[in-house]
Amino acid sequence: MDEFMKEAIHQAQKSLSEGGIPIGSVLVKDGKMIAKGHNKRVQEKNPILHGEMDCLNNAGRVGSYKGTTIYSTLMPCFMCAGTIVQFHIKKVIVGESKTFTGAKEFMESHGVEVIDVNLPECIHMMRDFIEKNPELWNEDIGEL
What we know:
Elements: H1 3-17, E1 24-29, E2 32-38, H2 41-44, H3 51-59, E3 68-72, H4 78-86, E4 91-94, H5 104-109, E5 113-116, H6 120-132, H7 134-140
Helix pairs in contact: 6-7
């Protein structure tokens, strides 16, 4: 596992420790991390502050996102995938998609390379969270 996915997992754990949903994200350009973030929907009472959205918000104005790669511990949802497509981010590396299938096909249909590495630590972290917090999880994915 590379340093960027390790940081995304650290961000997910940070969210969990804050009472939030354990999803973390990192944005990389030219081999360097330029931003990181985690799901803050619960902490900031913000329905769109998913891990990828927080990461991109933390990146600020970077001009062009060409050549960037975004890492996420979980397959991005359609909202986050739409932002990835809109910003022309061409590569997404995902910790897992077993607990949430997300919008892989949508991203791929718009020319985004999606690499799902199926990391056991990401799968276990999400399964444990969903088992302990089903209502919060269903709220996060819009299925309440």
